[in-house]
Design brief:
By secondary structure, the chain is mainly beta. It has six helices and 41 strands. The strands form nine sheets. It has a 22-stranded antiparallel barrel. Strand 21 and strand 22 form a beta hairpin. The longest helix is centred in the middle third of the chain and has 6 residues. The two termini are 26 Å apart.
């Protein structure tokens, strides 16, 4: 099995000490390896639930468009392609983030150490370039809380660091529904990275176009990612990071059950209102690392970016006539920046110990405007056009989080990890749109919370570790969740309180031959859970739900047989229920939390030699998902099968080619790929495509 290296330069702050285990527990070449300090540690030895997915596996016979293609083998992770590029993927970890009607909520996402999650907890995955990913780590459980606000789970993406020899690669993919993607990548290095003046680089760019499976779901996406590392001297390195994404996408919207069963490809509101979204984001980062001594390291990550979004929603004219309504067009202009500074010390206090302390500052300023989504032509509204302004405000969000984490090697077999973070989040809104019936909606709020976590790991044998961990996390409302009050009232919804959760987990990790078997049992109790209140006319409001409980089990196996046979399997059981009534007109106590599957299963098996023919198959299962708090609507369970095959060959010592084809949903199963939680009109369902096909070609040239 390949050794997957997670370079220290790419890791966000608190993953560093978490994965810095002493050499006494070093991994061998039969397990995934995470390198987070001068020592290396295997996935086996990490004292928490974490899964590592190799970038090469993510690109193997795949379209390389969405993370949902390749993360099925991660237990506890529910990732669903909405077939809607105006709304991003639905991503949740152990149920956190399941309520999000767009974007990613409740999960911290990092790309090369730069957060793709804003200070308020709202994130997105559209800027992740699968073509240049080195690996993806998915952290679950109590230690996720040490990343601060809205960290029910952590997805950490590390892109490739250039190496010799210089390599140029062109790749393309053509699939059903007029989908096609092509990309270019160049990577290389000058020197071996140990001498002053050594340089490494990886530059990748791609374009994706699709007509879309559904009506009114076409999209176009341009993406670029660059990483340049410069060795300053023998103890310090500087890494420059750049990323840009430009998306234009139509929004097909959700369907009612009857609409879905009658014609899953239709988009009646999309056609009527010309719903769509345009997004442009550009960001840059600078990461400085310095070895202060044999026992001390310094890391400073600085970044800044901007994101512009314009979205046209399916809101009729009548609701917009109310003075308090903010219109059917959202115009956002966001600027964000941050700095994360940390110091790590490795030494002894009776026993070997590692300390990491740091300070994380993030800031986002937002100009939010709203317009009517129509103009009148002889008294008749023409939708899909920007009309009169109905909202104009400036919002500020920032956080300042000091943190400390320690690791103690108590004995050869017993390790203690403990950490704490003090997270502070501030919101400030200044309303510039004041009119009769729409008063001044300015306001501010702040939230503060101590977030402790700890674990004990015991090495039963060299190949078997068990651990127990516990921690506390919290989740503030996002600015989108604060944006609207119930019953079309004006003003921000500052009545929302942050939710707090406490998690306990026990786990086991066992090396079996050339593979790893992991298991975990967990329970999370949450107070003031933030849930959807209403979702209608393009406006979603939220409320606190009292108490909820998530309890479950995760099981995964990553195994290799011989040189070329690979097996991956994962199963998740997650019982997520309300522990108090959250419904206005019925008793929801004991009901399932919507948007969360109780059971998920995945298995893939393939023959994957270095060169020549290869083939593989995968099967995915998801149980039914409740669509509303009352549990009166649900998306049925589904099972789909995929097949792939291809041929890898070389020409001389320089050229390598990979020609492949695949079919997904082999048996043409009709199912809802995702749901819009608590959609007030009952339009919960976002249909997934039937049987679909694709072919791809990758050509690489190495300068040797």
């Amino acid at each position: 099995m390949k050794i997957i290296t997670v370079r220290r330069a790419a890791l966000p702050a608190l993953l560093l000490p978490l994965l810095s285990l002493p050499d006494a527990q070093a991994a061998d070449e039969q397990t995934m390896v995470v390198s987070a300090s001068p020592q290396s540690v295997s996935e086996l030895d990490t004292p928490t639930a974490v899964s590592v997915v190799n970038g090469e596996d993510m690109r193997h016979a795949a379209p390389q468009v969405n993370l949902s293609e390749s993360l099925g083998a991660v237990p506890g992770l529910q990732v669903q392609n909405r077939q809607n590029y105006a709304q991003d993927l639905q991503l949740s970890v152990r149920g956190f983030g399941s309520r999000s009607t767009f974007g990613v909520r409740g999960i911290r996402i990092y790309v090369d150490g730069i957060p793709s999650t804003m200070p308020d907890g709202q994130g997105q995955t559209s800027n992740i370039d699968i073509g240049s990913i080195d690996n993806v780590e998915v952290l679950r459980g109590p230690f996720s809380a040490l990343y601060g606000n809205s960290s029910g789970g952590v997805v950490n993406v590390t892109t490739q660091t250039g190496q010799q020899p210089t390599t140029l690669e062109a790749n393309s993919y053509y699939g059903s529904f007029g989908s096609w993607r092509y990309g270019l990548k160049a990577s290389g290095a000058v020197g071996d990275g140990t001498q002053a003046g050594d340089v490494d680089y990886t530059v990748s760019t791609s374009r994706f176009d699709t007509h879309g499976y559904r009506d009114h779901s076409g999209a176009r996406k341009n993406l670029a990612n660059a990483k340049l590392g410069v060795r300053i001297n023998d103890v310090s390195k500087l890494t420059l990071l750049f990323n840009s994404v430009d998306i234009k996408a139509n929004d097909p919207g959700g369907l009612s059950y009857s609409e879905w069963r009658a014609d899953p490809r239709q988009s009646p509101r999309g056609d009527q209102y010309n719903t769509r979204k345009e997004t442009k984001q550009t960001q840059a980062g600078l990461h400085y690392e310095r070895e202060l001594s044999a026992h001390d390291d310094l890391s400073v990550m600085m970044y800044a970016g901007e994101r512009q979004t314009t979205q046209y929603q399916s809101i009729p004219m009548a609701p917009q006539l109310k003075p308090s309504h903010s219109g059917g067009v959202i115009d956002l202009d966001r600027h964000y920046q941050g700095i994360d500074t940390r110091w790590t010390h490795r030494g002894e206090l009776l026993v070997p110990v590692t300390f990491t302390t740091g300070l994380d500052y993030e800031n986002m300023s937002e100009k939010r405007k709203g317009y009517e989504n129509y103009v009148l032509n002889n008294g008749v509204p023409e939708y899909g056009q920007q009309g009169a302004m109905r909202r104009n405000e400036r919002n500020l969000m920032w956080n300042l989080d000091p943190y400390l984490q320690t690791q103690w090697q108590l004995t050869d077999k017993l390790t203690l990890d403990a950490g704490v973070r003090y997270s502070s989040v501030w919101f400030d809104s200044n309303d510039s749109y004041v009119a009769p019936g729409n008063g001044d909606d300015s306001g501010d709020a702040s939230y503060h919370k101590w977030l402790p976590a700890g674990s004990l790991k015991y090495a039963v044998t060299d190949a078997w570790n068990v651990y127990v961990s516990a921690g506390r996390g919290f989740e503030t409302p996002t600015i989108n969740e604060l944006s609207y009050r119930p019953d079309n009232q004006s003003g921000l919804n500052f009545g929302l309180e942050p939710s707090t959760n406490e998690t306990v987990e026990i786990g086991s990790k066992t090396r079996i031959g050339n593979g790893l078997l992991t298991a975990a049992l967990f329970q999370t109790d949450t107070d003031n859970e933030i849930v959807t209140d209403t979702s209608s006319g393009g406006r979603t409001t939220y409320k606190n739900a009292g108490k909820t409980r998530r309890q479950g089990a995760e099981l995964s196996l990553d195994q290799q047989f011989g040189e070329s046979w690979k097996l991956k399997a994962a199963w998740t059981w997650l019982d997520a229920t309300y522990r108090s009534n959250v419904c206005d007109d019925s008793n929801c106590n004991g009901n399932r939390i919507p948007g969360i599957a109780r059971n998920m299963g995945y298995a893939s098996f393939g023959y994957e030699p270095e060169m020549g023919w290869y083939a593989g198959s995968d099967i995915r299962y998801m149980s039914d998902i409740m669509a509303n708090d009352e549990n009166t609507a649900k998306a049925p369970s589904w099972t789909v099968v995929g097949l792939n095959t291809g041929y890898k060959f070389g020409l001389g010592n320089n050229w390598k080619m990979d020609l492949y084809g695949r079919v997904d949903n082999l048996f043409d199963r009709e199912y809802a790929g995702s749901v819009i939680v608590n959609e007030s009109n009952g339009r919960y369902y976002e249909p997934a495509p039937g049987r679909n096909y694709g072919v791809g070609l990758s050509v690489a040239y190495q300068f040797q």
